[in-house]
Amino acid sequence: MYGKPRSGQTPVRPLGGHHGGPPGGDGPPGSPSGGGGVRRPRNIGKIVLRSIAVLLVVLIVATVGGYFWIGSKLQSVEAFTDYSGRPAATPGEDWLLVGSDSRAGLSAEQRKKLATGKAVGKRTDTMMLLHIPDSGRPTLVSLPRDSYVPIAGHGNDKLNAAYAFGGPKLLTRTVEQVTGIRIDHYMEIGFGGFVGIVDAIGGVNICVKQNIKDKKAGINLKKGCQDMDGGTALGYVRTRKTGAIPDFDRTQRQRQFFSAVVQKAASPGTLLNPFSSVPLALSAADSVAVDPDTGLFNLLSVGLAMKGGPVTTAVPIGSLPTINGAAVVKWDTAKAVRLFDALAEDKPIPKDTITK
Prior knowledge:
Blueprint: H1 44-73, E1 75-76, E2 93-100, H2 108-114, E3 124-132, E4 139-142, E5 148-151, E6 155-158, H3 159-179, E7 185-189, H4 191-200, E8 204-208, E9 212-214, E10 219-221, E11 224-228, H5 230-238, H6 246-265, H7 268-271, H8 274-287, E12 288-290, H9 296-305, E13 311-314, E14 317-319, E15 322-323, E16 326-327, E17 330-331, H10 333-344
Parallel strand pairs: 1-12, 2-7, 4-13
Antiparallel strand pairs: 2-3, 3-4, 5-6, 7-12, 8-11, 9-10, 14-17, 15-16
Helix pairs in contact: 1-8, 4-5, 4-8, 5-6
């Protein structure tokens, strides 16, 4: 039956190809019609690359969308006004950083836990000038709240009275007039926001110079380096239980803590970790008030500029008189002028103007 065919007869082969298997064609092994061959494998590499590309596109879209969404949640506050004699724009970037004693957003239980008291309204508890040069290390200068300065329309008074009289606009104007530096960005944060940001980055490690026990600030700290959560940090920067001149010692702690928080917030371990970067961004957006021209990119630039640590100082002090029954701080005019002139010219500040 399967022998040599007679002349003119078509050869007959058994069903199933060469080996008698099921029907499937008779092409070479590996061909689409080759029933007994190996099928050509799919191009796995192309599939993987396409999947990665799609994933990257999704991540980029999500990141950009999240950026604009979080940016839209930033609280905006009018902080600048044009007035005759306003300083011209200077090199670098200059920020006025304000910490208020606002209890907004804190429940009665939170106020008790954080020992913030029951005061209503808000006052400027902390004021610092941050200068970010075009190159080199930033400079962070504490402006004592009791600084006795001229305030437009109100004569001479304590610096923090400018905020009470006219809010951020008058405070910014006062700082510009006494320093000769044009402020580019304004940022303000209250007690609740401070705690939220510190907790969002998992706390910070601070070296405490001495034992500090302050019931009013809600802290009982031992000397030495230690991790602080938001509540402990708030008490640490608020207490007046240290130093011969408590407010000066307090401004030093505020600079120390601000530097530590910003450097940790801008570290790769925080920024590249969604479990810390997302809560941080949301906390900042909900609790930080900035001028309308300041956005998340500007806030991030502060962190990146502070990575190496800033030069920190306070305005040089001349005397501590009592005027109209109130203890005030008078600057050392000559040193203060040299300090602010150097910042306005984007130059290193003179060493004799640095106050530890």
